[in-house]
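Let's practice the habit of predicting before peeking. Look at the sequence and jot down your guess about where helices and strands might fall. Then scroll down.
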Amino acid sequence: MSRRRADTAAGGRSRDLTRPEPPEPLRVPVVDTHCHLDIDDGAGSFGVDDALSAARAVGVTRIVQVGCELASARWSAQLAAAYDDIVATVALHPNEAPRIAAEEGRAALEAAWEEIATLAREPGVRAVGETGLDFYRTAAEGREVQEESFRRHVRIAVEVGKPLVIHDRDAHADVLRVLADEGAPQTVVFHCFSGDVDMARYCTERGWYLSFAGTVTFKNAAGLREALAVVPLDRVLVETDAPFLTPMPYRGRPNASYLVPLTVRAMADVLQCGEDELSQHLWDNAARVFGPL
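Done guessing? Here is the structure:
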């Protein structure tokens, strides 16, 4: 099991690592469509069973576990096979492919892509991702390998007939360029969507899904809320990206699936629809993307 550690607060400041109190439960259940149960949030013991129990108690009854390095991908596939209320995705994260190429060499990277393709065929693995481009953390010298890895993952998703889950950070135009070049799979999800109104329209016109995390609750995210407002209800998803991106009012503290209701309620306000109505759409959309839940 991979046990990477969540980043400290910006600038290296110490974080408040106490877990937030559970929010009021949702009346209609939803799915956390992007979670990293294998990443240590620094807040002490909170295993898979605890995470599932806390989530169920507030109406988050399914979790999509995202594996984004080889050890994590293997563990995620095993977890999905062991738990009825967890499904998995597998990929090399955009920042992982350049690392493998630089530290382990080309042969190791080729082998890693082959293993991801094998894992992607397992029944509990419902999508390929998170893959894409990240120009925030990967320097210019690593971007050629990063794009090659993205293209390989697009092809894997097409080959196995499963959705593609995209990580797009500071790389909107290039992500869309690669999808146009390669030919996107039938189902595409932009995880933790960070684009503007025009990009939201571009994606949803193509039938792609946009997933929103706790960032949509942040005070400085007015542009993101404007983008959410134009997303059709049949193309929206909710996620945590836990243990990262904790929604307000707990920004900076450890995130987990049980905090999804905070994001759902913020999204309902932006979309000007009832909480129950939005929750039902979120469930139905997640079922269309990730299969039986």
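How did you do? Strands lie at 30-35, 60-67, 86-90, 125-134, 164-169, 188-190, 209-212, 236-238.
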